[in-house]
């Protein structure tokens, strides 16, 4: 299953890439929401190979996820691979400079089932596809709007 969207951000491409690759802020956001996040790599700086393991409660059960950065090309693209017991997938972020202070943010997430239980889950998600697609687009648009507001405060 695949979700994708594009948003134009009123900020330079370097600023947007720095925000998209600010992994510590995403870790803090997950911790605030009750997840347990642990970085399991030994890298000193951001790049390919950064890996996290996280546990969180979802629908009354403890879930585990492993996330690894598989692509890190400043300032144009960032890619991650994620795996849970049920699903595996990718998250790809592409940035294109439209002008000096305008950047197109493209986000694509794909996932596939890893077992029969997951196939049933994905089948039910396909029935709710339009709502999930709308929620995905809203979240990316909200992130883009926050980036614009942050850039305006700094500039």
Task: Please sum up the structure shown.
The chain is α+β, with helices and mostly antiparallel strands. Helices cover 36% and strands 43% of the residues.
Largest sheet: 7 strands, antiparallel
Helix content: 25-40%
Beta-strand portion reads: 35-45%
**Sequence of secondary-structure elements:** EHHEEEEEEHH
Shape: globular
By CATH's scheme, which homologous superfamily applies? START domain
Mean pLDDT: 95
CATH class assignment: Alpha Beta
Spatial order of strands in the largest sheet: 1-7-6-5-4-3-2
CATH topology: Alpha-D-Glucose-1,6-Bisphosphate, Chain A, domain 4
DSSP, total strands: 7
Distance between the termini: 39 Å
Low-confidence stretches: none
Q: What would you call the structural class?
A: alpha+beta
